[in-house]
Amino acid sequence: MERMRLGVFILFVTTLFSGCSIDSGDAPGPQLLAVSYFENDAEGWIAEFADYHEGLEDSMKFDFDFGSVNVQNDIGDLSAIVQEGYATNSELFMFVKQQVSGLEPNSRYLVVFNIEFNAQLLEEYTGLLDTLYLGSYLKAGVFTDEPNTKVIPDPENQDLNLVVTDFDIGNAAHEKGTDMMNLGFIEHTKVDQSPIVLLGDNQDDPIYANSDAEGKLWLAVGIDSNVPIYQAIKYSTIITEFEYVKPF
Predict the structure, then answer these.
(1) How far from chain centre, in Å, is Cα 113?
(2) Residue 16: which region, alpha, beta or left (left: phi > 0; alpha: psi -120 to 50)?
(3) Whether the predicted model's global pTM rises above the 0.90 cut
(4) Is 7 contained in some domain?
(5) CATH number of the domain where residue 166 is located
(6) Is 243 inside a domain boundary?
(7) Residue 1: inside a domain, yes or no?
(8) Is the pLDDT confidence value at 23 over 50?
(9) What is the pLDDT of residues 26-48, one digit of tens each?
(10) In total, how many domains does the chain have?
(11) Which residue, of 84, 97, 203, 229, is most buried by count of CB atoms within 10 Å of its CB?
Protein backbone atom coordinates (compact mmCIF):
# COMPACT_ATOMS: atom_id res chain seq x y z
CA MET A 1 0.00 0.00 0.00
CA GLU A 2 1.38 3.40 -0.95
CA ARG A 3 2.27 5.50 2.06
CA MET A 4 0.52 8.77 2.80
CA ARG A 5 2.38 12.08 2.68
CA LEU A 6 1.59 15.57 3.83
CA GLY A 7 1.50 18.55 1.49
CA VAL A 8 1.07 19.06 -2.24
CA PHE A 9 4.13 20.44 -3.97
CA ILE A 10 3.75 19.98 -7.75
CA LEU A 11 1.98 22.78 -9.61
CA PHE A 12 2.31 23.84 -13.26
CA VAL A 13 5.50 21.88 -13.83
CA THR A 14 6.66 21.19 -17.38
CA THR A 15 9.45 18.70 -16.58
CA LEU A 16 10.20 16.41 -13.64
CA PHE A 17 13.63 15.10 -12.76
CA SER A 18 14.00 12.70 -9.86
CA GLY A 19 16.97 12.58 -7.55
CA CYS A 20 19.74 14.37 -9.39
CA SER A 21 19.29 14.77 -13.15
CA ILE A 22 17.08 15.01 -16.23
CA ASP A 23 17.56 12.44 -18.98
CA SER A 24 19.76 13.86 -21.72
CA GLY A 25 16.92 13.67 -24.22
CA ASP A 26 14.66 15.94 -22.20
CA ALA A 27 14.82 19.67 -22.84
CA PRO A 28 14.62 21.81 -19.67
CA GLY A 29 11.45 23.86 -19.42
CA PRO A 30 10.81 27.13 -17.63
CA GLN A 31 10.08 25.31 -14.36
CA LEU A 32 11.68 22.07 -13.15
CA LEU A 33 11.57 19.88 -10.07
CA ALA A 34 14.19 17.81 -8.26
CA VAL A 35 12.30 15.18 -6.26
CA SER A 36 13.67 12.99 -3.45
CA TYR A 37 11.22 10.60 -1.73
CA PHE A 38 13.97 8.24 -0.47
CA GLU A 39 12.02 5.12 -1.41
CA ASN A 40 15.11 2.91 -1.76
CA ASP A 41 18.23 4.86 -0.79
CA ALA A 42 19.68 8.30 -0.07
CA GLU A 43 19.24 9.34 -3.73
CA GLY A 44 22.58 11.10 -4.01
CA TRP A 45 22.36 13.16 -0.82
CA ILE A 46 25.67 13.39 1.06
CA ALA A 47 25.99 14.11 4.78
CA GLU A 48 28.39 16.67 6.27
CA PHE A 49 29.04 17.95 9.81
CA ALA A 50 30.51 21.31 10.81
CA ASP A 51 31.17 23.67 13.72
CA TYR A 52 32.94 21.15 15.93
CA HIS A 53 36.52 20.70 17.14
CA GLU A 54 38.81 18.73 14.85
CA GLY A 55 40.37 15.66 16.45
CA LEU A 56 37.69 15.23 19.10
CA GLU A 57 35.39 13.07 16.96
CA ASP A 58 35.75 10.12 19.36
CA SER A 59 33.83 12.08 22.00
CA MET A 60 31.09 12.99 19.54
CA LYS A 61 28.32 11.08 17.78
CA PHE A 62 27.95 11.49 14.01
CA ASP A 63 25.84 9.18 11.87
CA PHE A 64 24.01 9.17 8.54
CA ASP A 65 21.75 6.42 7.24
CA PHE A 66 18.73 5.53 5.14
CA GLY A 67 15.78 4.00 6.98
CA SER A 68 12.14 4.31 7.97
CA VAL A 69 10.42 6.58 10.46
CA ASN A 70 7.16 5.78 12.23
CA VAL A 71 5.18 8.98 12.73
CA GLN A 72 2.01 10.10 14.44
CA ASN A 73 -1.37 10.98 12.90
CA ASP A 74 -1.82 7.43 11.55
CA ILE A 75 0.54 8.13 8.67
CA GLY A 76 2.57 4.99 9.31
CA ASP A 77 6.15 4.38 8.23
CA LEU A 78 7.94 6.87 5.98
CA SER A 79 11.26 6.15 4.33
CA ALA A 80 13.82 8.84 5.06
CA ILE A 81 17.44 9.80 5.28
CA VAL A 82 18.46 10.20 8.91
CA GLN A 83 21.31 12.38 10.15
CA GLU A 84 22.32 12.25 13.80
CA GLY A 85 24.83 14.32 15.69
CA TYR A 86 26.20 15.44 19.02
CA ALA A 87 29.23 17.67 19.54
CA THR A 88 30.85 18.64 22.82
CA ASN A 89 30.77 22.28 21.80
CA SER A 90 27.43 24.02 21.35
CA GLU A 91 27.17 24.97 17.68
CA LEU A 92 26.95 21.79 15.64
CA PHE A 93 25.64 22.25 12.10
CA MET A 94 24.51 19.09 10.30
CA PHE A 95 23.67 19.30 6.62
CA VAL A 96 23.05 17.16 3.57
CA LYS A 97 23.94 18.16 0.02
CA GLN A 98 23.06 16.98 -3.47
CA GLN A 99 24.09 18.02 -6.98
CA VAL A 100 21.34 18.43 -9.57
CA SER A 101 21.83 18.58 -13.34
CA GLY A 102 19.70 19.19 -16.41
CA LEU A 103 19.31 22.94 -15.98
CA GLU A 104 20.16 25.51 -18.64
CA PRO A 105 23.92 26.24 -18.48
CA ASN A 106 25.08 29.59 -17.10
CA SER A 107 21.56 30.66 -16.22
CA ARG A 108 19.82 32.27 -13.28
CA TYR A 109 17.04 30.42 -11.47
CA LEU A 110 14.61 31.11 -8.66
CA VAL A 111 14.73 28.14 -6.28
CA VAL A 112 12.12 27.02 -3.75
CA PHE A 113 12.56 24.18 -1.25
CA ASN A 114 9.67 22.04 0.02
CA ILE A 115 10.86 19.80 2.84
CA GLU A 116 9.04 17.15 4.84
CA PHE A 117 10.95 16.12 7.96
CA ASN A 118 10.95 15.61 11.68
CA ALA A 119 13.50 16.39 14.35
CA GLN A 120 13.98 14.42 17.54
CA LEU A 121 16.07 14.45 20.69
CA LEU A 122 17.92 11.16 21.01
CA GLU A 123 18.77 11.66 24.69
CA GLU A 124 17.43 13.88 27.42
CA TYR A 125 20.01 16.35 28.66
CA THR A 126 19.49 17.34 32.28
CA GLY A 127 20.73 20.70 33.46
CA LEU A 128 19.59 22.48 30.29
CA LEU A 129 16.47 24.60 30.24
CA ASP A 130 13.65 23.32 28.04
CA THR A 131 13.66 26.59 26.14
CA LEU A 132 17.26 25.92 25.14
CA TYR A 133 17.34 22.28 24.20
CA LEU A 134 13.99 21.56 22.60
CA GLY A 135 14.62 23.34 19.32
CA SER A 136 16.99 24.07 16.45
CA TYR A 137 16.72 25.86 13.10
CA LEU A 138 16.21 24.46 9.62
CA LYS A 139 18.29 26.11 6.91
CA ALA A 140 18.65 25.70 3.14
CA GLY A 141 20.85 27.06 0.37
CA VAL A 142 21.73 26.71 -3.34
CA PHE A 143 25.30 26.82 -4.68
CA THR A 144 27.08 26.93 -8.01
CA ASP A 145 30.12 25.21 -6.48
CA GLU A 146 30.01 22.26 -4.09
CA PRO A 147 29.47 23.34 -0.46
CA ASN A 148 32.15 21.84 1.78
CA THR A 149 33.85 22.14 5.15
CA LYS A 150 37.27 23.53 6.05
CA VAL A 151 39.50 23.67 9.11
CA ILE A 152 40.40 26.95 10.86
CA PRO A 153 42.10 27.82 14.17
CA ASP A 154 39.68 28.16 17.08
CA PRO A 155 39.79 31.88 17.99
CA GLU A 156 38.93 31.00 21.61
CA ASN A 157 41.45 28.17 22.08
CA GLN A 158 44.84 28.22 20.34
CA ASP A 159 45.33 24.51 20.97
CA LEU A 160 42.26 23.47 18.95
CA ASN A 161 41.02 23.77 15.38
CA LEU A 162 37.42 24.09 14.24
CA VAL A 163 35.79 22.29 11.34
CA VAL A 164 33.47 24.87 9.76
CA THR A 165 31.55 25.31 6.52
CA ASP A 166 33.25 27.09 3.62
CA PHE A 167 30.00 29.03 3.15
CA ASP A 168 28.08 31.44 5.38
CA ILE A 169 25.27 29.88 7.44
CA GLY A 170 24.85 32.86 9.81
CA ASN A 171 26.60 33.88 13.01
CA ALA A 172 23.92 32.34 15.23
CA ALA A 173 21.52 29.43 14.83
CA HIS A 174 18.50 31.71 14.52
CA GLU A 175 20.13 33.96 11.90
CA LYS A 176 20.29 33.45 8.16
CA GLY A 177 23.63 33.71 6.41
CA THR A 178 24.77 34.98 3.04
CA ASP A 179 24.51 31.45 1.62
CA MET A 180 21.87 29.74 3.80
CA MET A 181 18.38 31.02 4.52
CA ASN A 182 16.55 30.23 7.74
CA LEU A 183 13.34 28.27 7.18
CA GLY A 184 12.39 28.70 10.82
CA PHE A 185 12.51 27.32 14.33
CA ILE A 186 11.74 23.63 14.76
CA GLU A 187 10.73 22.09 18.05
CA HIS A 188 12.17 18.65 18.74
CA THR A 189 10.05 15.67 19.65
CA LYS A 190 11.15 14.26 23.00
CA VAL A 191 12.79 10.85 23.22
CA ASP A 192 9.70 9.06 24.46
CA GLN A 193 7.35 10.51 21.83
CA SER A 194 6.68 9.43 18.26
CA PRO A 195 8.03 11.86 15.65
CA ILE A 196 5.64 14.39 14.13
CA VAL A 197 5.86 15.25 10.43
CA LEU A 198 6.80 18.89 9.85
CA LEU A 199 6.90 20.96 6.67
CA GLY A 200 9.37 23.69 5.76
CA ASP A 201 9.55 25.86 2.66
CA ASN A 202 10.63 29.22 1.31
CA GLN A 203 7.68 29.79 -1.03
CA ASP A 204 7.49 33.45 0.05
CA ASP A 205 11.22 34.05 -0.29
CA PRO A 206 12.76 32.17 -3.28
CA ILE A 207 16.53 31.93 -3.61
CA TYR A 208 18.36 33.25 -6.68
CA ALA A 209 21.05 30.87 -7.94
CA ASN A 210 23.28 30.60 -11.02
CA SER A 211 23.83 27.24 -12.74
CA ASP A 212 27.33 26.36 -13.87
CA ALA A 213 28.57 25.85 -17.43
CA GLU A 214 27.20 22.27 -17.41
CA GLY A 215 23.74 23.23 -16.14
CA LYS A 216 24.35 22.00 -12.59
CA LEU A 217 23.69 23.33 -9.10
CA TRP A 218 24.29 22.09 -5.55
CA LEU A 219 21.54 21.99 -2.91
CA ALA A 220 22.13 21.97 0.84
CA VAL A 221 19.67 21.52 3.72
CA GLY A 222 20.71 21.50 7.37
CA ILE A 223 19.85 21.86 11.02
CA ASP A 224 21.63 24.44 13.18
CA SER A 225 21.78 24.11 16.96
CA ASN A 226 23.18 26.39 19.65
CA VAL A 227 23.37 23.92 22.54
CA PRO A 228 25.22 20.57 22.92
CA ILE A 229 22.40 18.09 22.38
CA TYR A 230 22.20 14.69 20.72
CA GLN A 231 19.61 15.10 17.98
CA ALA A 232 18.38 13.58 14.75
CA ILE A 233 16.95 15.19 11.63
CA LYS A 234 14.95 12.83 9.39
CA TYR A 235 14.12 14.01 5.87
CA SER A 236 11.26 12.06 4.28
CA THR A 237 10.78 14.36 1.27
CA ILE A 238 12.91 17.07 -0.33
CA ILE A 239 11.38 18.69 -3.40
CA THR A 240 13.14 21.63 -5.01
CA GLU A 241 11.52 23.86 -7.65
CA PHE A 242 13.64 25.67 -10.23
CA GLU A 243 12.09 28.54 -12.18
CA TYR A 244 14.18 29.76 -15.09
CA VAL A 245 14.85 33.51 -15.05
CA LYS A 246 17.48 34.38 -17.68
CA PRO A 247 21.02 33.60 -18.86
CA PHE A 248 23.87 35.51 -17.30
Answers:
(1) 10
(2) beta
(3) no
(4) no
(5) 2.60.120
(6) yes
(7) no
(8) no
(9) 444 568 999 999 999 999 999 99
(10) 1
(11) 229
